[in-house]
Amino acid sequence: MSCQLHHVAVNTRNFEETVRFFKELFAMEVTQEKGQAPNRKLWFREGIQVNENLGERSDGDRYDHIGIQVDNWEQLRRRAEEMGCTPVPGKPHWFVTPDKIVIELMR
């Protein structure tokens, strides 16, 4: 089984500024945009996903989830559950590790 990092998603209260930062500093290329303010999402070809999130998180964390590309996400998700991970309701290819890291398995 092979895997590689697919993307990392971050939450931001200042969507335009965060997108501008990644475009200007790293010359990242936008591949997809979805939604309307205040719930926009944007993906850069280079593996960063930006989520507009105006709410307060109790832990203050800006991180949302890690996307990992795998050969067989169904098999890997079963193994993750055997290791104590919990599935995310309504998202069959997502799970949360015992240490509360949210992972999205990508094909």
- H and E order: EHEEEEHEEE
The class by helix and strand makeup works out as: alpha+beta
Shape, per Cα inertia axes: globular
Helix content: 10-25%
Query: What Rg is obtained from the alpha carbons, in whole angstroms?
Result: 15 Å
The largest sheet has its strands arranged as 2-3-4-1-5-8-7-6
Biggest beta sheet summary? 8 strands, mixed
**Individual helix count:** 2
- What is the residue-mean pLDDT, rounded to a whole number? 89
Task: Tally the beta strands.
Answer: 8
Distance between the termini: 12 Å
Counting copies of identical and different chains, the oligomeric state is: single chain
Low-confidence stretches: none
DSSP strand (E) fraction?
Answer: 35-45%
